[in-house]
Amino acid sequence: MGRSGDTIPHVIRSIFPQLENAGILSVFANRQFIIALCTCGVSYPLSLYRNIYKLSRASGLALIGMLIIVISILIEGPHVTPDLKGDPQKRFTIMQPGVVQAIGVISFAFVCHHNSLLIYGSMQTPTLDRFAKVTHISTFISLVACCTLAISAFVVFTDKTMGNILNNFSKVMTLRA
Q1: What is the pLDDT of residues 162-171, one digit of tens each?
Q2: Per-residue pLDDT for 176 more than 60?
Q3: Quick check: 153 and 77 in contact, CB under 8 A?
Q4: Pair 61, 31 in one domain
Q5: What is the pLDDT of residues 19-33, one digit of tens each?
Q6: What is the pTM of this model?
Q7: How many CB atoms lie within 10 A of CB 7?
Q8: How many CB atoms are located within 10 Å of the residue 175 CB?
Q9: By CB count within 10 A, which of 30, 51, 82, 137 is most buried?
Q10: Given a cut of 70, is residue 11 above it in pLDDT?
Q11: Phi, psi values for residue 16, rounded to 5°
Q12: Does residue 122 lie within any of the structural domains?
């Protein structure tokens, strides 16, 4: 839920810039409140299903959200002001401080083995061939999305790349979009 706490308050503030001065409604711009709200109102109810097949609509919505973010960064990234862009000399350097942490994040993104039995059990007609097909297709989609986002953002922001790519964009850019 850390991602929702890092992203949603920024989006809400860009849509409603006066929200921070709106009394009780300013709580929707608060990171801790958004994390608690998303945990209690979204993650917890979704985690109560015994059969993960029922999560297919939520997964589809998450996939659409991911595509919107990747496409937005591909389109808007090159248009950021020069002060937000990183050093162009560092575009194609890989070995820098922080590379070990990046490898950990990337490998965590592909760790889904603990869900394998749940996914297999939720298939309408579970066979090893169908499971292999689902696993390969979903891993490939994840790989393409992660690499597209990472490479396109790093080419623009290089040494100024933040953990949440959306934080690299200025508030003016966010308001324009």
Answers
A1: 777 878 876 6
A2: no
A3: yes
A4: no
A5: 777 788 788 878 888
A6: 0.67
A7: 18
A8: 11
A9: 30
A10: yes
A11: -120, 80
A12: yes
